[in-house]
Amino acid sequence: MRMLLKGGQVYDQSQLVSMDLEVTDGVVTGRGQAISSNADQVFDCRGLAVFPGFADVHVHLREPGFSYKETIASGTRACARGGYTVVGAMPNLNPAPDTDAHLRLQEDLIARQAVIRVLPYGSITLGQKGEGEVTDMAALSPRVIGFSDDGRGVKDAATMRDAMRRCKAADSIIAAHCEDMRLIPAGGAIHDGAYARAHGIPGIPSESEWRPIARDVTLLRETGCRYHVCHVSTKESVEIIRKAKAEGLDITCETGPHYLLLCQDDLQDLGRFKMNPPLRDKADQEALIEGLLDGTIDMIATDHAPHSAEEKGRGLAKSAMGVVGIETAFPLMYTYFVETGRMTLEALMERMVYAPRRRFRLDGGIGIGERAELTVFDLHTDYAIDPADFLSMGKATPFEGWRVHAQCKLTICGENVAYNQLNR
Length: 424
Known about the structure:
With 424 residues, this protein is of the alpha/beta class. The chain has helices spanning 72-81, 100-113, 137-140, 157-169, 194-199, 207-223, 235-246, 257-261, 282-294, 315-318, 329-338, 345-359; strands at 2-12, 15-24, 27-32, 41-44, 49-52, 54-59, 84-89, 117-120, 173-176, 190-191, 203-204, 226-229, 251-255, 299-300, 373-378, 383-384, 403-404, 407-413, 416-420. Strands 1, 2, 3, 4, 5, 15, 18 and 19 form an 8-stranded mixed beta sheet that branches. A 4-stranded parallel beta sheet has the order 9-12-13-14. The two termini are 19 Å apart.
């Protein structure tokens, strides 16, 4: 199968350059001017930007166990529409991928349904309990992107130390959900700040996030494990990670578009504003932006977390935690960071393409000889985000109605045209 993308502005060494792109049997085989159009599929990309496929190391695809929220099929179609060609699927599933047999259930679903690459996480602990016995990382590591108990933190230092040592021996990576539930009051739903106090909603303190990160940094000094912090949301977390990096520890982190573009001042009593960790103070938002720009925050991850309409329809206090974001991440970041001059396109590509691929050892891209993973965007269109149009089964986004200027037109993952609005 030979595919040809004609006349696009291809992202090449920090800039967009007009050229054709040839893909043969899922591999990039040509880049240049006026490549022959003798191909099985030809895509007219004139006026459009061609990027390497985005990589998200933190998504929830909900299968097995919770297919009423999302399926591998619907979730990966949404990923492709967002420009993503490879994602790491979090393990808070039923059953959790903590053994060979349980992981195989997830792998079988992925093999049958996924339209892009989906790489599962193995759970850190058996049953993903955040305590007790650590999984057999040596056995699982060849088949997973890393290890996480996302959705709950590892409760004690002894368990995390054991996990780090096993992960180090397996040459894998821990993606840590840092949350100390002992510091969160019953019913904790949003940030412990002005909005929570004004509306009588139990608040989630910043310390419940940064305290476990500080603990794990101490353990990193002992173990030398590859370690990644999920969904950073507080200014204290950013500073702890900044100092750990200066010390030379093997640590990276991520944050999501919602933490960069919103804070507690933007809250409304609607489930689409409820996520974990919660939207924090304006000072936290500003610290996250600073960390993104100075490289302390390595990558942008969506924490795409679909729920049913009923689960998200109970207001801030009682709705399930989690918002969707895989279809809106690049349009939002491009519109509100690149177009406004807050960051360069090169910096955004680093955070959404290259850093996650390097850190999690993911191949693919748009270079000659690479597995073809690419996405095509119209950067000049203008539209309002409408969750009714989402391909994800989850519709809860805090960005409903926001206007953006980048729209996906095509996503190719290997030999598969995962999303196509060009040849219609």
